[in-house]
Design brief:
Helix content is 7%, strand content 47%. The longest helix is centred in the first third of the chain and has 7 residues, at 7-13. The chain is elongated, with a radius of gyration of 26 Å. By secondary structure, it is mainly beta. The chain has 2 domains: 7-43 and 179-290, Immunoglobulin-like (Sandwich), CATH 2.60.40; 47-175, Immunoglobulin-like, CATH 2.60.40.2550. The strands form 5 sheets. Strands 13, 15, 16, 17, 20 and 21 form a 6-stranded mixed β-sheet that branches. It has a 5-stranded mixed β-sheet with strand order 5-11-10-7-8, with no helix packed on it. Strands 1-19-14-12 form a 4-stranded antiparallel β-sheet, with no helix packed on it.
Length: 294
């Protein structure tokens, strides 16, 4: 495809490498060379789009339009179910005020199969664009995407007398909103001297930010009780106030590396991590067992 969306790249670009000064805990993922800590693709959401036939995609200057009128995409090619699929074009009135476009713009959203063949038209919209005002922006498309699947957005322009001016197409994949994001450890059982590695696995189609502190809890009967790292490891564990991120469908690098001390009491524990990105904060949990020395 000649159109590549950059949601995952944009999120990944904000990842900031961090390091911790305390000997028991380090989150400098760029220094952790273990295979477990390598970032990898968990789900390639754009793969179905790359197998579709090429189309003439909208975007940039419109050759039939007055100078400096451009069409732009407002949605990524991977859309979370229920989010909008929209285009727009801005008319710079300071250049074109007083001009009358007299356009009929028709948008259609067509469900397609894996080869790009039409199945059914699921949404349609007709919009008339008349005189240009000083500041004028036209929004096209659909406020709510349909159920998960492959779709083609068709947009056509015609003059008031019906003369075709231009036609464009773009492919989209709509994915489920409820896909998971997990905190994963390199194992579930550890002994003194073992290294605990933790990383975020994001199976969703949107990126997530994280950072701030980890917490640790210990199983006490039927309850999980918070316990300080200082109590477990004999020193303070400092977590820098630096944000990191995991891109859509990606496994992040290790954000934590913890060596189990000889003094850590055997039992059941769990690490807790807060994440947030375009949503309310959420907590991820990974359980582990500390066993006596071999």
């Amino acid at each position: 495809m000649n159109r590549r969306r950059v949601l995952s790249v944009a999120v990944t670009a904000i990842v900031v490498a961090i390091s911790l000064a305390t000997p028991g805990f380090a989150a400098a993922s760029h220094r952790l060379k273990e295979p477990f800590c390598k970032s990898r693709v968990l789900r390639d959401f754009e793969a179905p789009l790359r197998r579709l036939p090429e189309v003439r995609e909208p975007g940039g200057w419109l050759p039939f339009a007055p100078r400096k009128i451009s069409l732009f995409a407002k949605s990524e090619s991977v859309v979370i179910g229920g989010d909008p699929i929209e285009y727009g074009f801005e008319l710079p009135g300071i250049v074109t005020e007083g001009r009358r476009l007299d356009w009929d713009v028709v948008s259609r959203l067509v469900r397609i199969d894996r080869r790009g063949r039409d199945i059914e038209v699921v949404k349609a919209q007709r919009r008339h664009v008349g005189p240009i005002e000083l500041v004028y922006r036209v929004e096209l498309g659909f406020k709510r995407s349909p159920r998960p699947g492959l779709y083609r957005y068709d947009i056509s322009f015609a003059s008031g007398d019906g003369t075709p001016l231009g036609e464009y197409r773009a492919h989209y994949v709509v994915v489920r909103r409820d896909l998971e994001i997990r905190l994963r450890l390199n194992a579930t059982s550890f002994r003194p001297g073992d290294r605990i590695l933790a990383k975020i696995e994001n199976f969703r189609a949107s990126g997530y930010g994280y950072g701030l502190d980890y917490w640790i809890q210990r199983r006490d009967g039927a309850d999980w009780e918070p316990v300080s790292f200082e109590e477990l490891f004999g020193h303070r564990v400092r977590f820098p106030r630096v944000r990191r991120g995991t891109g859509a469908g990606m496994s992040g690098p290790c954000s934590a590396s913890l060596t189990v001390p000889e003094t850590m009491a055997p039992g059941r524990y769990r690490l807790v991590k807060q994440i947030s990105w375009r949503e309310a904060p959420r907590f991820l949990i990974a359980e582990l067992t500390i066993r006596p020395p071999a």
